[in-house]
Amino acid sequence: MNKIGYILSSFPVLSETFISTEIRAMERCGHEIQPIAFNHHDGQYQSYDGSLKERTIYLCDHSNALAFKALPLLKSSMFKGIKFALHQRGIPFKSLLGNALKLAYIAQKTGCTHFHAHFSQSAAATAIVAARLCGVTVSFVGHGHDIYASPQDLSLKLKSVDFAVAVCLDMAHHFNSLAPQANTSLIYCGVETDRFNNIGKQQQINDSTVTQGDLQVQDGTAPQNANTGKLLFIGRLSETKGLFTLFNALNLIDRDIRPTLDIVGDGVLRGALKQHAVELGLTAYINFLGTKQSTWLIENARCYAAMIAPFEMADSGDRDSGPVVIKEAMALKLPVITTYFMGCKEMLTLESGLRVQPKDEAGLAQIITRFYAMSPEEVDTMVENAYERVNSHYCADLQAICLSTMVEMAS
């Protein structure tokens, strides 16, 4: 089994749970993983990522002198790395080469035989050059803004890695259009379904009665479409999440049947969203709860009627390609209302969730109303279908087997 160096811009990051989830799954496949990040992340991170943080190597902690130590270790493939560094335009040549030399030295000293970069910008560029300098294989995975809003030398990178990973079908098609000869693999961001299921079951054992709005729920099982149940949104407060569309849709629903919305997360649009809620007269219906650990969703999912995630494309072209939060909701048997957009449209089927076209305020209002009119039996069938689908298609261990196979084939 290869020892894989995970190349990251900063780590760990609260919202990037897909990275640590993948690392743990790859370790269960038998790989040894060495996280390597350019910088420490100043913000919050998931508490269960603490052990990964402790063994992460940070390039910023090492002086430039480390780059010179790599010179005696260079392989003949280094010329491919230098050629890439000269042709790319995303990073100044000197800076790119310096960090790549540091990374190459660390790889040699820690025994890494493959580099896997998350996000296709500086992490991928540095991994490509370093891999060629020290003679190891390399791959990168694209996500959202790095592919669509601010891509850097994407076609060149696709041609320069041993393989690239797309996290949804639309991205795979995009990669193939940019570089038809590149080795592109479709590997989804997975969910640790066992962790979600086990904690969820334990909560049910611990609690015999749960309050959902004004309802008393017996035996730890909440009615999934109770008319007084709240909607839940979780994510960064950014343009790609469709929250302005959601607020406008709620405003179209008659007050007598309008649901309350809890928003978990923070971001640049928090102030603008609060102001928009005021302007629409929705402050009594919308609660901003701030950021939460991922365990919060596991512990509180049954207190909500549904997860709502009206993703859409930002004006800049930025987009969410395969939001993990939807898969987490599916694993927790929490109904999902989302859009026919990027990865969302392939995660759910007509039998396992409710979807509407992006930026369709009227359509979103109608589908929310339709959800609350569904019978308990219809909702139960939908969430069971979603549960089966996330376990059969999006389990982290299944996706790690695919990635592990690609790494081994590249070696």
Descriptive account of the structure:
The strands form 3 sheets. The chain has a 7-stranded parallel β-sheet, with helices on both faces. The protein has a 6-stranded parallel β-sheet with strand order 12-11-10-13-14-15, sandwiched between helices. Strands 8-9 form a two-stranded antiparallel sheet. The longest helix has 18 residues, at 93-110. It has helices spanning 17-28, 50-54, 65-69, 78-87, 93-110, 122-134, 145-148, 154-160, 169-178, 193-206, 243-252, 270-280, 294-300, 324-331, 344-347, 361-373, 376-393, 396-410, and strands at 3-11, 32-40, 57-58, 114-118, 137-141, 163-166, 184-186, 209-212, 215-218, 230-234, 261-264, 286-290, 304-309, 336-339, 354-356. The chain starts with a strand and ends with a helix. The protein is an alpha/beta fold and 411 residues long. The protein contains 18 helices and 15 strands. Residues 199-227 have low confidence and may be disordered.
For this entry, give a set of tags.
single chain; about 400 residues; alpha/beta; Rossmann fold; 2 domains; 7-stranded parallel β-sheet; 6-stranded parallel β-sheet; 18 helices; 15 strands; elongated
Précis, in short:
The chain is of the alpha/beta class and 411 residues long. The chain has two domains: 3-190 and 395-410, Rossmann fold, CATH 3.40.50.2000; 193-393, Glycogen Phosphorylase B (Rossmann fold, 3-Layer(aba) Sandwich).
Shape, per Cα inertia axes:
elongated
Structural class: alpha/beta
Level-2 CATH architecture of the largest domain:
3-Layer(aba) Sandwich
Number of helices: 18
From the alpha carbons, calculate the radius of gyration and give it in angstroms: 23 Å
CATH fold annotation of the largest domain:
Rossmann fold
Q: What is the CATH class name of the largest domain?
A: Alpha Beta
Low-confidence stretches: 199-227
